[in-house]
C-alpha cells in the first residue's frame, strides 16, 4: 500500500503541473463527403490500473501464500468504429481486450513461461457488432423516432448502468452487478439479437429479443429442496427479452449509441427516472433427488439519474448522483462470486477459515435477491478561466441481500477524479471495501482495495 501511495503522490504532482489537451472537437472523424453527412468515426481508449489489494484469507499467487499485493493491469484497451453513409444506415464494430495482468488475462492456452506465458498476448475479441436502420428519423418537428438493429449488441435493457459507457464513469468503474449475466449467457454484457430504440417526447425506450449464449453448468444434487442451488444451464436456449424505458425531465440525451453517460460534468441539466427488465425462460437448473428442475431468469430494476450545474455559473461546479434498485431472481439460492482481475488461487495449505467466495478479491457479486446501489459526486469549483486540473470527489454505497446468504452486506467506495481534459484525459483514485464471508451467516471482516486508474480516450 505504501508503494502505491507514493506512486499516487507522484502522479498527482504531475497533474498539478500538467497542461490541458487541445479541444477534442469531432474526434477521429473522417468525412466521406464535403457536407460531413457521410463519415466514419473511430474512438480509442485505454484504462490502466495500479492497485494495492488486501486479499481474502487462504489466497495464493503462484506457489506463494499472500495476504496482500500491488500490481499494474490493463483494465480496458478498446477501439470502436462506426460508419454512416446515409441518415438511415449505420454499422458499428467494437473490439478490444480486458483485464490483463502479470499472471492472467492471456490468450487461451497461455501458461507457464515464455512467449505465450501466463498473462501474455490476450485474445482480442468483438464487444459489439451490429447493423442499424432508422425507420423513423429523429426530427425536431416530430416527437417520435424509431431505429431497428441486429447483431451482437449492448441494448440489454434492465438499467441505465447495465448499458453504461465505460468512458465516463463517476467512480473508477461499474459495480459489476449491473451486468448480471456477465460472461455466462452473454459475451461481455452483450447478446446476439434484434433491438428497437427511439424516443417519444421526453421518453426514451430500448427493447430487444436475443438468443442467450449457451451455459451448461451441472447442478449439485441435494435431497432437501430448501438448500438446492440454481446454476447456469439453459440447455437449448430460449429467446430472452429485455427492455428499458426512461423519462427525461430536463435536457434530452442523445441515443445515437447505446452507451449511457456516467457524469456530464455539468455540461447538461439532467434528471431522469427509468425502469427495465430482463427475462430468459429456462435459464438455470437445480437438482433435487435426481430430478432436474428448470428456472426462468427474471430481473427487474428501477433507477434515477441527476447531473446538473450548481452554484455560481463562473465557478463551473456540478453535482452528479445515481441510484438504482435491482431485484434479481435466477432461481433458488443462485449466487456468483466475482472479482475484477483476480490473480489469486486457493492455498491448499491454509489452516484458517477461508472466504466462502474464494481466494483473492472474490466476493458475492450477483445472486437471487436485492441490490441497492447509490453514488454521488461534486465537481469542485475552478479557480481560473482555464484550470489545469478539475477535481471531482465522489462516494458510493452498495447494499446486497442475497437468498443464499443469511446476512446482508454494506460496501463503500470513496475516491476522486482528476480531470486534465474532461474524461478524455483523467486520473481516478478510489478505495473500496468488500465483505469476507466465512459462513453464510457471518461476515468475518471487510477487506479493502486501492486503485489508481489512468485513462485517455480519443
TrEMBL record:
The keyword Signal applies. Residues 1-18 form the signal peptide. It comes from the Bacteria. Keywords: Signal. This is Short chain amide porin.
